[in-house]
Specification:
The chain has 219 residues and is of the alpha/beta class. Helix content is 23%, strand content 25%. It has five helices and eleven strands.
Length: 219
């Protein structure tokens, strides 16, 4: 794979080291920062992190949320500019939820079954199986179903305009979205913690979905 430059917008560069490492293992150069010119990059990766401020989708904040308005501002701005430029976008966890909000969707602020999806008391990721829709990007990678990791307490409620839910956990949480016409994909799980030095025996190989994103960045 030719060297690709992938923008990873963040106000805490040290928090995205796993994403940059996974990109590097696949031959791409991820750059963490606050501001990017889309013409200089092949794609945008929206990483995991804290909750999107619910005011962005017309809700009041609840006690379980931790938000960062500065992070929201820089990531929504980056997304707007990369979409306008027609660059591929891939969202992970918070990025999955932020994409949904950007397209006019809403979030479940605290899942009724949050204990099935939040990190374990040890701090390790939870794991569960998920069912995949046919004729979707995840189906082409993993087939009808696969096991994924999990570390979140929120989820997509109503998908945004043009977004299709293509993967769900066994208890109904939307685990992946794809846009009907734009090069936009997202997953609720953390593929960067399911590959290379973080490879797990109890989940699918996360590098496959990151590689899918990078291959589309080459087109």
């Amino acid at each position: 794979m030719n060297m690709l430059r992938i923008a990873v917008p963040t106000n805490r560069p040290q928090a995205v080291a796993n994403y940059l490492d996974a990109l590097a293992q696949l031959g791409a150069h991820g750059e963490a920062g606050r501001s990017f010119c889309p013409s200089d990059y092949s794609g945008l990766l929206l990483p995991g992190g804290c909750d999107v401020n619910p005011s962005r989708y017309g809700r009041d904040r609840i006690a379980q949320e931790t938000t960062d308005d500065d992070l929201d501002a820089l990531q929504f701005d980056a997304l707007d500019r990369f979409l306008a430029a027609g660059r591929p976008v891939f969202g992970i966890c918070r990025g999955h939820q932020l994409l949904n909000v950007a397209f006019g969707g809403t979030l479940i602020q605290h899942l009724q079954n949050a204990e099935n999806h939040m990190s374990l008391p040890s701090g390790e990721d939870n794991t569960h199986r998920a069912v995949i829709e046919r004729k979707s990007f995840v189906y082409r990678i993993y087939g009808d179903e696969c096991a994924v990791n999990s570390s979140h307490h929120q989820g997509v409620e109503i998908p945004g305009k043009g977004l299709r839910a293509v993967m769900r956990s066994e208890d109904g949480v939307i685990e992946a979205l794809e846009h009907e016409s734009l090069p936009v994909w997202s997953v609720q799980w953390h593929p960067e913690r399911m590959c290379f030095r973080h490879r797990r025996n109890d989940t699918a190989d996360g590098s496959s979905v990151i590689r899918f994103f990078l291959e589309n960045c080459l087109k």
